[in-house]
Amino acid sequence: MASRVTSEDVARVAGVSRATVSYVLNGRSGQSISEATRERVLAAAQELGYSPSTAARTLRRGRSDLVLMLLPPEPLGRALAMVLDSASEYVEQAGLRLIAHRLPDGGAAAPLVRSLVPAALIVATPLNAEDLDSLQASGVPMASLQQDHADPLGADLGIGAMQVQYLSSAGHRRIGVALPAGPGYQWRADARLAAIQEACSRNGLLPPAVERIGLDPAAAAAAIDRWRQARIPVTGVCAFDDEYAFALLAGLSMLNLSAPSDLAVVGAEDIPLARLAIPPLTTVSVHARRIGVLFAQLATASLVPTDSSAGTTAEPAESLPPVTLVLRSSA
């Protein structure tokens, strides 16, 4: 097995000291190294296939070049996958590297952060108070759902509030909520329900009628029937996402009912199929890519030079709302 190429090998081929190799390959300023010497070092490193030791660089700097993104213990979903993708693009442009880790239920974030020594943190999942305090005390720059930011980083991103606001403005006085029956989306479902409950209260509506369903027309039909038979019938529903909205539309069809005349249905995330629903689905579009860039900007603000080209296509935080209503025919 061939031995690992070291900086000493590069120095020998380039005819310079190891210190010069270090200055050139690590981009360290304050040294008067000629352009010819710099090019000779880079050519030698390329010829030998040399790459600097990440472990050594981490030890020297006291941090790695990693931006660690902590994800919830659930399937990503389209919106969160887009947040991850755009955050990764931003940090790559900044000369850093994003890695994502799905934190299990009850998983301790602090030991993971201590082992990886990240340059910055993006926390896209709720943490317990002990973990959050520990991360904040570590001094690692962090953007978190639990920080006191405006809505772009609120746990529900403003989705539930927008669903309720639209249904309320359309005259619906009793609103239903369709949430996943399984445990896989628990934290996000809880955040959505809390947002909808708060919005109903703020708009002078009754507390929402909650049903937990699977992606199954029969289960959705049973929930619809309960809503319609209630003492104060539900006339408009906030679906957890567009897939659950599709289940509700299928349930209505099983009952020979339709949206919006028998039940108004509002989805979330605006997946590509939403416009192909029957009827086309009114939904809340999540500006996931811009939210991902915002997360990355907040986390790396102290690491990225102000004249850096990273993220130049991103809109500033104050120009976001994080969500937009897409009005179609289902509500």
Give a short synopsis of this structure.
The chain is an alpha/beta fold and 331 residues long. The chain folds into three domains: 7-52, Orthogonal Bundle (434 Repressor (Amino-terminal Domain)); 64-154 and 289-320, 3-Layer(aba) Sandwich (Rossmann fold), CATH 3.40.50.2300; 159-286, Rossmann fold (3-Layer(aba) Sandwich).
Give an overview of the whole structure.
This protein is α/β, with parallel strands linked by helices. Helices cover 42% and strands 14% of the residues. It folds into 3 domains: 7-52, Orthogonal Bundle (434 Repressor (Amino-terminal Domain)); 64-154 and 289-320, Response regulator (Rossmann fold), CATH 3.40.50.2300; 159-286, 3-Layer(aba) Sandwich (Rossmann fold), CATH 3.40.50.2300. The chain has helices at residues 7-14, 18-25, 35-48, 54-61, 77-93, 109-116, 129-138, 159-169, 186-202, 217-229, 242-254, 288-300, and strands spanning 66-71, 97-102, 120-123, 142-144, 175-180, 209-213, 236-239, 264-266, 283-286, 323-326. The longest helix has 17 residues, at 77-93.
Index terms:
331 residues; alpha/beta; 434 Repressor (Amino-terminal Domain); Rossmann fold; 3 domains; 42% helix
Write the layout of secondary structure elements.
Blueprint: H1 7-14, H2 18-25, H3 35-48, H4 54-61, E1 66-71, H5 77-93, E2 97-102, H6 109-116, E3 120-123, H7 129-138, E4 142-144, H8 159-169, E5 175-180, H9 186-202, E6 209-213, H10 217-229, E7 236-239, H11 242-254, E8 264-266, E9 283-286, H12 288-300, E10 323-326
Parallel strand pairs: 1-2, 1-3, 3-4, 5-6, 5-7, 7-8
Antiparallel strand pairs: 9-10
Helix pairs in contact: 1-2, 1-3, 5-12, 8-9, 10-11
